[in-house]
Design brief:
Layout: E1 4-10, H1 14-28, E2 32-34, E3 43-48, H2 53-72, E4 77-82, H3 83-95, E5 101-103, H4 111-116, E6 125-127, E7 149-153, E8 155-156, H5 167-171, E9 175-176, H6 179-191, E10 196-200, H7 217-225, E11 232-236, H8 245-253, E12 260-262, H9 270-275, H10 282-295, E13 300-307, H11 314-327, E14 331-336, H12 354-377, E15 383-391, E16 398-402, E17 408-412, E18 421-429, E19 434-438
Parallel strand pairs: 1-2, 1-3, 3-4, 4-5, 5-6, 7-10, 10-11, 12-13, 13-14, 17-19
Antiparallel strand pairs: 8-9, 15-16, 15-18, 16-17, 18-19
Helix pairs in contact: 7-8, 11-12
Bound molecules: 5'-deoxyadenosine (5AD) and iron/sulfur cluster.
The site of 5'-deoxyadenosine (5AD) has 12 residues, from strand 13.
C-alpha cells in the first residue's frame, strides 16, 4: 500500500505544537507522511485549544471547512485531539458528525490503535480517559535536517487550579518525567545537531516535586548545562510562587541558560490575585523581579496578563498598569478574561462588561507597546549573540535569529550561517524585532 497523507492543523500553545510534532512521528511509523494541503490528505488531525472561547470558536469553524472536504472524498478520516476534545468530546461529535475520532490529551500514543477502530460504517470513536503515566512525552521524531532548536517536554499537567484556567481540568495532574530520560534525550538531540532546547511544562518550577530524591528544576538545568553541544537552554512556563533562589542563581552559574524568563503575573492587584488563587502578592512578584535583575541585570522578563477578571474594579486595573510601569516587561501577552466551563471563576459574581474588558485591553496594550519599544531600544549599539534560525520572512537576503534574551534579530547574511551562532551589533529597534549588523569574524 502506498503512503497515506496526513494533514495536522494545530491551535494554541507551544505544548500543542510539540504534541502535533509527536503525533506526526507516531503516525509516520504507521506509514503516514505529512502534507500541508488538507485537500490531498487521507487523515486530517485537528489539535485543539480551549484556553479561551475565541480559540474554541476557531476550531469549530475549521471543522466546518473540513466537512466540505469529507463530502467530496468519503474515505477521508478526521480526528480531533487536544484540550477542546478533552473538554467537549461528545458535544464535538454532535455538532460535527463528520468527525471519525475524538481523542483526549493523554491519548496521543493510542491514536493508531483508536484509528484502527474507526470502521468505514461504524460510529465515531471517542477516548478521553486520563492515564497515570503518559507514554508520549519522550521525543519520538528525530529533528528535521538543519533544525537547531527543539522542544523537550519535562512535565505535563498542572496542580495549581487558578480560578480562570481550564488546563488542570483538561491536562490532568502534574507528572514529571524522570531526569535521566530527559538528559538522554537531550544528549541525543545534541548529537543530531540541536543547539538550543526549550524545556516545556505548565509549571516547570515545580519539576520533580512528586519524586523526592530526584532532580529538582535547578538541578535539571545544571545537568543540561553540562551536555556538550547544547549552547542554549530555555524554559516555559514558570509560576511566580515557585520561583526559587536556586533557580535565580542558575542564570548566573549556568552559561548556557539564556537570560530570559516568562513569568506570568496575570494581574497587578492583590485583591484580584487572591480571587484568581495565584498564591502570591504584587509585592512578592515585584521582589522576584528585583532579585532576578540583581543577579542578572540584562535578563528579559515577559509575562501574561488577564484584564476584566470578575470583580476587577477600575482601581484594580490601575494597580495592574502601575505594576507594568514599575517593571517594564520586555513583552506581554494580554487577554480579556474568558469564562471557562468547570473553572471556579465561572460562578463568581460581578462580571466585567465586554466593552469594559475591551477598553482595558486596549489601554494596557498601548502601554505595553511603549515599554516593548523602550526595552528594545536599550539593545541599540550592543553586540548580541544570535543563534541563526533561517532566512528572514521579509527578505531572502536577510537571516533571522534570536538573542539570548529571546528578541528576534534580522540581519544581512549568507544562508550558510543558518544553525551557527554569530554576533550582531544592534542598529535599529522596532516593536516586534531588532535589526542587526553581522560582526566579523562571524563566529
Ligand atoms: N481567560 C483569559 N485568559 C486566560 N488565560 C488562561 N485562562 C484564561 C481565561 N479563562 C491566559 C493566562 C495564561 C495564558 C496561557 O492564557 O494569562 O497564562
Ligand atoms: Fe492554568 Fe494556573 Fe496551571 Fe498556568 S498555573 S496552567 S494558569 S492553572
Amino acid at each position: 500500500m502506498g503512503k497515506r497523507r496526513l494533514y495536522i492543523r494545530t491551535f494554541g500553545c507551544q505544548m500543542n505544537v510539540h504534541d502535533s510534532e509527536q503525533l506526526a512521528a507516531i503516525l509516520a511509523r504507521e506509514g503516514y507522511e505529512g502534507t500541508d494541503r488538507p485537500e490531498e490528505a487521507d487523515l486530517i488531525v485537528v489539535n485543539t485549544c480551549s484556553i479561551r472561547e475565541k480559540a474554541a470558536q476557531k476550531v469549530y469553524s475549521e471543522l466546518g471547512r473540513f466537512r466540505r472536504l469529507k463530502s467530496r472524498s468519503p474515505g477521508l478520516r478526521i480526528a480531533v485531539g487536544g484540550c477542546l476534545a478533552q473538554q467537549r468530546g461528545r458535544e464535538l461529535l454532535a455538532v460535527a458528525p463528520h468527525v471519525d475520532l475524538v481523542f483526549g490529551t493523554h491519548q496521543l500514543a493510542s491514536v493508531p490503535k483508536l484509528l484502527s477502530h474507526c470502521e468505514p460504517d461504524g460510529g465515531p470513536v471517542l477516548e478521553t480517559a486520563f492515564c497515570d503515566r503518559i507514554e508520549s512525552l519522550a521525543i519520538l521524531a528525530p529533528p528535521l535536517p538543519g533544525a537547531v532548536s527543539a522542544y523537550v517536554t519535562i512535565m505535563q499537567g498542572c496542580d495549581n487550579f487558578c480560578a480562570y484556567c481550564v488546563v488542570p481540568h483538561l491536562r490532568g495532574r502534574e507528572q514529571s518525567r524522570p531526569g535521566q530520560e530527559i538528559l538522554a534525550e537531550i544528549r541525543s538531540l545534541a548529537e543530531s545537531g540541536i543547539r538550543e532546547v526549550t524545556l516545556l511544562g505548565q509549571n516547570v518550577n515545580s519539576y520533580g516535586a512528586g519524586t523526592p530524591g530526584g532532580l529538582d528544576f535547578p538541578g535539571l538545568i545544571r545537568e543540561i548545562g553540562q551536555v556538550e553541544g547544547i549552547e542554549r537552554i530555555r524554559f516555559t512556563t514558570s509560576h511566580p510562587k515557585d520561583l526559587s533562589a536556586d533557580l535565580i542563581r542558575c542564570f548566573r552559574e549556568v552559561d548556557s541558560l539564556c537570560e530570559h524568563i516568562h513569568l506570568p503575573v496575570q494581574a497587578g492587584s492583590n485583591r484580584v490575585l487572591a480571587r484568581m488563587n495565584r498564591g502570591y502578592t504584587r509585592e512578592a512578584y515585584l521582589d522576584s523581579v528585583q532579585r532576578l535583575r540583581n543577579d542578572c541585570p540584562d535578563i528579559s522578563i515577559t509575562s501574561d496578563m488577564i484584564v476584566g477578571f470578575p470583580g476587577e474594579t477600575e482601581a484594580d486595573f490601575r494597580e495592574t498598569l502601575d505594576l507594568m510601569e514599575k517593571i517594564r516587561f520586555d513583552n506581554l501577552f494580554s487577554f480579556k478574561y474568558s469564562p471557562r466551563e468547570g473553572t471556579a471563576a465561572l460562578t463568581m459574581k460581578e462580571p466585567v462588561a465586554e466593552e469594559v474588558r475591551s477598553e482595558r485591553l486596549k489601554i494596557l496594550q498601548a502601554l505595553q507597546d511603549s515599554h516593548t519599544q523602550e526595552r528594545n531600544r536599550l539593545s541599540i549599539g550592543r553586540v548580541e549573540e544570535i543563534l541563526v534560525e533561517g532566512v528572514s520572512r521579509t527578505s531572502s537576503r536577510h537571516l533571522t535569529g534570536r538573542t539570548r534574551g529571546n528578541k528576534i534579530v534580522n540581519f544581512a547574511g549568507e544562508e550558510r550561517l543558518i544553525g551557527r551562532t554569530v554576533r550582531c551589533r544592534i542598529a535599529q529597534a522596532f516593536l516586534h524585532s531588532l535589526r542587526g549588523e553581522l560582526q566579523l569574524p562571524e563566529a
